[in-house]
Amino acid sequence: MQRVLRKLYGAGILFFYSTKWFIFLGYPMLIYGADYTRVWSMDLLWLYALFLIGKDFVWRFVLKRHYCKSKQCKKGE
Fold first, then answer.
1. Taking the domains of the chain in order of start, what are their residue ranges?
2. Are 53 and 23 in contact (CB under 8 A)?
3. CB 53 within 8 A of CB 24
4. N or C: which end of the chain has fewer CB within 10 A?
5. CA 45, CA 40: separation in Å to the nearest integer?
């Protein structure tokens, strides 16, 4: 059971790291600009994207850490 939950968590992270900005910026445009009806599941996904953006901000600018610790990542390669 724990292995399955780890895989689901990993898949969620990979999916939302590639789409978090589209969801964060696009969903409010759909609601307020295109009269899209609000759906609670999309609201939860928007909050999750907001959490990931906040986590990235804190991780990079407040804690001054990077995800990659090898020398190649620090050189920008």
1. 2-75
2. no
3. yes
4. N
5. 9
User: Cβ distance 16 to 48 under 8 Å?
Assistant: yes
What is the rounded distance in angstroms from the CA atom of residue 70 to the CA atom of residue 73?
Answer: 6
Two tokens, residue 26: 């696009």
CA 14 from chain centre, in angstroms, equals 8
For residue 50, give the nearest of 18, 13, 10, 20 by alpha carbon. Answer: 20
16-29: pLDDT as tens digits: 778 888 888 989 89
The structure tokens listed for 39 are 């759906």
Structure tokens of 57?
Answer: 């901000």
Q: Which two tokens stand for residue 60?
A: 């990079």
Q: Write down the residue that tokens 């804190």 correspond to.
A: 58
Q: Structure tokens of 23?
A: 């969801």
Q: Tell me the CA end-to-end span of the chain in Å, nearest whole number.
A: 38
Instruction: Tell me if 66 sits within 8 A of 73, measured CB to CB.
Output: yes
